[in-house]
Amino acid sequence: MKSVSLTLNGEAVTHQVEPRLLLSDFLRQELALTGTHVGCEHGVCGACTILIDGRTARSCLLFAIQADGSEIETVEGLAGADGTLSPLQQSFREAHGLQCGFCTPGFLMTATEYLRDGGSPDRDEIRHAISGNICRCTGYETIIDAIADAARKQEGVSR
């Protein structure tokens, strides 16, 4: 067993893990953060996307011990402590940017990085930003609508 210490959604976490435990399994099984979904287990679908030190990463491709000393954000960390949806989550809700919801956490985390980096509401830029995430239900247009709406709202606030 190896000790892993990290900051997870703003809180310090220290846990003993097997060296071969995947980060996705650590989050889901050891910490009960089941919002991080596991789809392909090959880093292709994007369902397991989280933020590590502010950058997107596929948690199914990393061992938990590789995250030692890192700051991790999962979809559970997006909403306020009182359950209030983040502006991005609210935009997904208003634009109906999900159907079955399996891919949604990965899209939300990818879009979070895009918006934090100053992403614009330009649909082509959004398509490029989310190109590593796969959705089998929506046809992507409502997801793009939601991210564009959140980007417009963010621009309005920052001006």
Structure report:
- The structure is a single chain.
- The chain is α+β, with helices and mostly antiparallel strands and 159 residues long.
- Helices cover 34% and strands 16% of the residues.
- The protein is built from five helices and five strands.
- It has a five-stranded mixed β-sheet, with helices on one face.
- Strand 3 (49-52) and strand 4 form a beta hairpin.
- Helix 2 packs across helix 5.
- The longest helix has 18 residues, at 141-158.
- The protein is globular and about 45 Å long.
- The protein starts with a strand and ends with a helix.
Secondary structure: elements and pairs:
Elements: E1 2-8, E2 11-17, H1 23-30, E3 49-52, E4 55-58, E5 71-73, H2 87-94, H3 104-116, H4 123-129, H5 141-158
Parallel strand pairs: 1-5
Antiparallel strand pairs: 1-2, 3-4, 3-5
Helix pairs in contact: 2-5
How many alpha or pi helices? 5
| Sequence stretches where pLDDT stays below 50 over 5 or more residues | none
Tell me the helix content: 25-40%
Distance between the amino and carboxyl termini: 50 Å
- SSE sequence, one letter per element: EEHEEEHHHH
Number of DSSP-assigned strands: 5
Report Rg. 16 Å
Mean pLDDT score: 95
Basic shape:
globular
Structural class: alpha+beta
Report strand %: 15-25%
How is the biggest beta sheet arranged? 5 strands, mixed
Numbering strands along the chain, what is their spatial order in the largest sheet?
Answer: 2-1-5-3-4
